[in-house]
Amino acid sequence: MAEKKAEQTDVAQAEAASRNRRRSNRQAVDPVIPDAIGRQLRAFYQEVANEPVPDRFTELLNRLAEEQDNVDCEKDGSE
Amino acid sequence: MTVPEDFRERLIESIPSLRAFAVSLCANSSRADDLVQETLVKAWANYQSFEAGTNMRAWLFTILRNEFYSQMRKRGREVEDSDGSYAARLAIHPNQHGHMDMADFRVALSQLPDDQREALILVGASGLSYEEAAEICQCAVGTIKSRVSRARTRLAEILKLDRSDDFGPDRSAEAALTMPTSRRVG
């Protein structure tokens, strides 16, 4: 759920950034192309960002948290 | 010395953006995920250097980017060929219908110089500001603006070339072959 929200925020931010960009960078190239490029860029990015988070990352963070707990226990024991 | 729970939660929330940024840097999804993994390990180990209240995504992107370039320096040219991006360049060919599809766009994106591509992605896709992008890339805001502008111009050129049915794959391959084959990292 939190991920979903973060993605929506990302999209909103990207859209806002893109509106600003359209205003400020219009002269860079033919405006039809930057708009198409901008849309494509966000689609490219969102395609990956919308994928479910692979298990390896949540497992990694769980492992790091466990290691930390173990270290903390050892410390407590030696003191 | 315990990593706070909300730090961990925010790391997890950042993973989708980290993966998207990593894929845009190295155009190889398994290598991108290795980069993300390395980034998470470093972020975890250095959580104390993250200033609460600042943008965590920008902080994580900085770590990921530094990791990417440090790997590039270590691996040198081998990276360029082993990730297949050279082959991908040669695979460009005009789209029959003359419209930009995602595969064409990816290939075009992979042809941009690294500094231009990352600026374009940071500002144009990830929604970070020019200022945040400048901080991540350790350069001036004006430099980011100029990279983004050059990247857009270049992409437009590549994609036009891509649509030119008259010359077909040969013309694209020729253009690809004139591209520098090794990325310079300063």
Summary keywords:
heterodimer, A: mainly alpha, B: 186 residues, mainly alpha, Rna Polymerase Sigma Factor, Chain: A, Arc Repressor Mutant, subunit A, 2 domains, 10 helices, disordered C terminus
Give the topology.
The complex is a heterodimer of chains A (79) and B (186).
Chain A: H1 2-24, H2 32-49, H3 55-78
Helix pairs in contact in A: 1-2
Chain B: H1 5-26, H2 29-45, H3 56-75, H4 77-82, H5 85-90, H6 102-110, H7 114-124, H8 130-136, H9 141-162, H10 168-177
Helix pairs in contact in B: 1-2, 1-3, 2-3, 3-8, 6-9, 7-9, 8-9
Report on the biggest sheet of chain A: none
**Domain module tally of chain A:** 1
End-to-end separation of chain B = 35 Å
Pick out the low-confidence regions of chain B.
86-98, 161-186
> In angstroms, what is the radius of gyration of chain B?
18 Å
Number of helices of chain B: 10
> What would you call the structural class of chain B?
mainly alpha
Q: What is the CA-based Rg of chain A, rounded?
A: 21 Å
Q: Could you tell me the number of beta strands of chain B? A: 0
Number of strands of chain A: 0
Percent in helix of chain A: over 70%
N-to-C SSE string of chain B, H for helix and E for strand: HHHHHHHHHH
Instruction: Tally the structural domains of chain B.
Output: 2
Q: What percent of residues of chain B adopt helix (DSSP H or I)?
A: 55-70%
Biggest sheet features of chain B: none
Q: What's the pLDDT, averaged over the residues of chain B?
A: 79
Uncertain segments of chain A are 21-33
Question: What proportion strand of chain B?
Answer: under 5%
Structural class of chain A: mainly alpha
